[in-house]
Amino acid sequence: MINLEWYRTFKAIYKMGTLTGAAEALYISQPGVSLHLSSLEAYVGYKLFDRTSRKMIPTERAKVLFNAINEPLTKLEIVEKTFQKSTEKHAPTISIGMCFETFQTTLEPFVSSLDFNLIISFGDYPEMLDQLEKGILDLIITPKKGTSLLIDHEPFSSEKIILVGGKDVEVSEFKKHLKANDKMVLETWLKDQKWYGTTGDMEHLFQFWSLNFDKKPDFRPNYIVPNLNSIVRCLFGGSGLAVIPDLLCQKEIDEGKIQLIWEGEKELINTLYFGTRKKSIHQQEINQIKELFKQVMPK
Predict the structure, then answer these.
(1) pLDDT band per the 50, 70, 90 thresholds, residue 201
(2) pLDDT band at 88 (very low <50, low <70, confident <90, very high)
(3) 93-157+271-296 is classed in which CATH architecture?
(4) Domain segments of the chain: what residues?
(5) pLDDT digits (tens, 9 = 90+) for 120-152
(6) Count of CA atoms in the C-beta half-sphere (13 A) of 227
(7) SS3 annotation, 206-220
(8) For the HTH lysR-type domain, which residue ranges apply (predicted)?
């Protein structure tokens, strides 16, 4: 008999594009993801993904399988949430969607103090917006607004995308080129450095580079790590560059563990929103979560 978790894992790999991304989205270990995938491939009798160094490429059979199971799995998740057994008999269960790094740096320290049950989901923003509208999620934290008339978006903070580096990176030459406004030499200097990136998501680097050099970067990071918080910790080693939100590294900059190198000639600032359905029976609990975010994040 097939294990439905194999299908859930397959769906996550298909959407996230990597085993690491799927593991973060499902909040399970990467070996667990690999085990589910290999079990499913053994069950169906054919390979579902072509594995490359950077991405899991779905085969044609995988595309057919995904189209067959995607909608039924989504419906099952709604049923699962509706009938989920709670550890507290009368405590409501609130489901929140956000990126992994946001959870770690904001909500994680407060989870044990909440008087209701909590389910945290990680995924991409379009998927979270879709799950919010369908009732799978009750609240999302997102830098992107959807178009659904059923969803309210409340701005509550902002993040600036900045270039940071290890504390030992020598930036005098960079500052000289910056003062001379020599974009070509500036770009060459940057590309000569060692760079950090994350698995399957280079959006911050692409946006920052396009805004300041009017083109996409024509290089790939030297070191690919699981998430943005991992990048910050890797930069403690003293070398390397990365483009990340200031919310995730301001404390480390202030403490001198890493350095701010450039905010960009044109600043890249994202507004952060609370996304909620217009009507919710859990408004009190949602407001409590909102207040926690407002306490720890700048306005």
Answers:
(1) low
(2) very low
(3) 3-Layer(aba) Sandwich (3.40)
(4) 4-85, 93-157+271-296, 159-269
(5) 988 888 889 988 988 889 999 999 888 888 899
(6) 19
(7) HHHHHHHHCCCCCCC
(8) 2-59
Percent of the chain residues topping a pLDDT of 70:
96
CATH 1.10.10.10 fits 4-85, yes or no: yes
82 Cβ neighbours under 8 A, 6+ residues apart = none
Residue pointed to by tokens 């917006």: 129
C-alpha–C-alpha distance, residues 18 and 200, integer Å: 7
β-strands 268-277, 151-166 pairing: antiparallel
Q: Where are the alpha helices (DSSP H) in the chain?
A: 4-16, 19-26, 30-44, 60-82, 100-102, 125-134, 172-180, 183-191, 203-213, 228-235, 250-254, 283-296
Average pLDDT over residues 47-61: 90
Nearest to 241 by CA among 291, 186, 167, 158: 167
Q: What is the pTM of this model?
A: 0.68
Two structure tokens written together for 171: 């930036």
Residue 56, C-beta contacts closer than 8 angstroms, at least 6 positions apart: 13, 17, 18, 19, 49, 50
